[in-house]
Amino acid sequence: MRQAGRYLPEFRKVRESHEFFEVCRTPALATEITLQPIRRYSGLLDASIIFSDILVVPQAMGMEVIMNPGPHFPDPLNTPEDVKKLKEVVDVDKELGYVFQAITQTRTELNGEVPLIGFCGAPWTLFAYMIEGGGSKTFQKAKTWLFKYPEESKALLLRIADVCVDFLVGQVKAGAQLLQVFDSWAGELSPYDFDQFSFPTLTHISTNVRRRLVKENLPATPMTVFAKGANYALASIAASGGYDVVGLDWCIDPVEARRIVGDKVALQGNMDPGVLYGGRDAIEAAVKRMSQGFRAGKGGWIANLGHGITPGVDPEDMRWFLECVHKYSAL
Ligand code: CP3
């Protein structure tokens, strides 16, 4: 669950004395924060996700990114000319070796308790940040690129995808046991434009990561894709995306999602994180409904929220959510 740290006092404590990307770049701190929820909810979580951020990839490509409190790029890519400012060749071992070290250290400290998930941002989502220079409501700048400079956009998207491939393979080499690709802004595209600009880069990543894992004698590693807001594309993602698990936001009913994807992929999701504000009865009812929905069909289910935990959630309500998941998925 992305950006999960902020609702935990132990996370905020570390952040009091360390800047966000400093934490990402310091393997001992990233390891410590990765382990915080595992310790707090001991026995209730089935996996951990490495503490990092999707924006370490634009940094590796040569861009400056600061967190204040949301992401901010002081010098975004305004026109296709600006692509010249990016590094021509990105050596992920050199630029992102700190993530690999954090993964290896976390695996050691987890000592087999739960598996460790590695991740990256999807090319379209990273492209949007690199051009907008931060979050956006209209995506005016990123869309100007897509629709005014479609060929240059596709070239940049593919360039980002190639860095993602090297980065994900490096994470497996370092010890990651599942890989998740976050396309947080997929829902900003029409079905046609998702097919033009995002889907080909998602399949580029799944195909090439798997190819490289075989070639480099690394473990075959399951892959998850989360294309937030792109439920219109679920059927094609499941049929030909090349992923083992499809993450869902809360805007689709579990039974409907299973009907659309068939039984080829596992599903992950999808309670509205906002329910965590509603108290125990609301949480229990939502978990019960979600669990019954996902377990009615064939195929695997990974219980999760439909997006990240927001800062104001009470950690004890989060515990209750996890307890309810165990209760209703065992029935
Ligand atoms: O949850 C975790 O702690 C796991 C590690 C993780 C983070 N970010 C840490 C983080 C993961 C998997 C992410 C993914 C991420 N980062 C995504 C994809 C998932 C999604 O949210 O759709 C995106 C789009 C980002 C970019 C990003 N990073 C944003 C938009 C923000 C600000 C969020 C906000 O609401 O203010 C971040 C910051 C960030 N990344 C935090 C954490 C714990 C909080 C920042 C802080 O500590 O000050």
Automatic annotation (TrEMBL):
Its EC number is 4.1.1.37. The keyword Lyase applies. GO terms for cellular component: cytosol. Transmembrane segments: none annotated. It is an enzyme of class 4 (lyase). It is found in: Cytoplasm. Keywords: Cytoplasm, Decarboxylase, Lyase, Porphyrin biosynthesis. One of its GO terms (biological process) is heme biosynthetic process. Homodimer. Catalyzes the decarboxylation of four acetate groups of uroporphyrinogen-III to yield coproporphyrinogen-III. This is Uroporphyrinogen decarboxylase. It comes from Agrocybe chaxingu. The lineage of its organism: Eukaryota, Fungi, Dikarya, Basidiomycota, Agaricomycotina.
